[in-house]
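User: I'm putting together a teaching handout on how multi-component assemblies are represented. Below are the sequence lines for each component of a complex, exactly as they appear in our records. Could you produce the 3D structure of the whole assembly as structure tokens, so the students can see both representations side by side? Please keep the chain order the same as the input.
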Amino acid sequence: MGTSTENASVEQQLLSFLEERTKTPWTPDRDLFADGGLSSLFAMELVVHLESTYDIMVAGPDLQLMNFRTVNAMVAMVDRLRQAAGE
Amino acid sequence: MNDREALVSELVGDRADTWDLTGLIPAEPLRKLGEAGLLCGELPEQYGGLGLSSLDNGRFTAHVGSLCSSLRSVMTSQGMAAWTIQRLGSAQQRADHLPRLTSGTLAAVGFSEPEAGSDLSAISTEIRPDGDDVVVDGRKVWVTAAHYAHLLVIFGRYGDGAAAVLVPADAPGVTVERVADPMGCRAAGHAGIRLDSVRLPRGHVLGGAGAALTMLVTAALSYGRMSVAWGCVGILRACLAAASRHAKSREQFGRPLAQHQLIGGHLADLLVAEQTATRVCEHASHRWDEGSPDMVTAAVLAKHVGATQAAAAAATAVQVLASAGASDGHVVARAYRDAKLMEIIEGSNELCRLMLAQHALSVSG
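Assistant: Of course. Below is the structure of the complete assembly, with chains in the same order as your input.
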């Protein structure tokens, strides 16, 4: 697990990214696709953003909508993939 | 013209119309281009590829597209297969399979099925774990380059999710049957594929599988859309060149066609179309090379603009050449048929517009 400070930082960065891209404020637990109406195309944009920002690769079974459904889910995945890359 | 463009110009020569009429690209140009790494130019050097940027590969793709859309379609398939393995495969799978794509192996990617065209969520091909193996059952249609391919990348259902699996074209249970007389890109090797209880080692399933079908397909198709978009730029350049040459040389009413204002208007429209598609493709390639999240939407936009501009412009070019270009064996007649297919594959015009509309809503606040 990353430190709570690192995860809080990722959370804040993702909230800022989403707000900038969608011109809408977000909360960490808001469902982007159900409540937010974002498209699967936008989900792939999130994949590219996470990969380029956090130097991770989201591949294979991690390409699940549930991993991108909320900011909380994305923070958890980034943390997990960073840990795996560091091992 | 750089070395890459010179090589493909030499290999195609004046044979594109013959390939179109016979429905077949000979083995030698495919082998030479494949072994030179030019069928999937963006493949990183660590896997034996050229490691071209999206922009450089796009410009090369446009050059190939200006010569022969069937050959460009084979390139799109090879590049999309490489991208899919690179994007979804494990490190071991990338190391095992990607170098083959620049060593003579040709590949094709199967998405569409009899009941799943634009609605790929209706895919019914099943990839079923069975001990250390998987068993694949299903049917794919209109798989570009499948007639030439040694390796098939097949998308299907896998448990509650989806997966892509690598299927050797000569595996027991695989039947590849050419599409008879396709309207356009006639030599692109379009074929239907039947998969009857095809048993493969589980390691042929890319990336462990179980991902969301929409995300897998979007990831794979993004490359295909870029390639088709640049190919459309090539079609536009071929049409602009043919129409301009004809308008300068053909005289009617005592002067060259180009001096008739209505024909001049057509030439201007062709130039606008070619420049519009080129700039949108350059924008998308820049986004791709920067690793920007915009690249996904930019690829859809480029494909849609390229295809619609190419289809309209090819019709205009046939109009300018009239009877001189209205028979098989002429570049604008071929472009007219090829360009129409570009409005259907890799996301139809309608699907692209829906995706772009959804994107507009997503970022509208």
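A couple of points students might notice: Chain A has three helices and no strands. The helical segments of chain A are 4-22, 40-54, 71-86.
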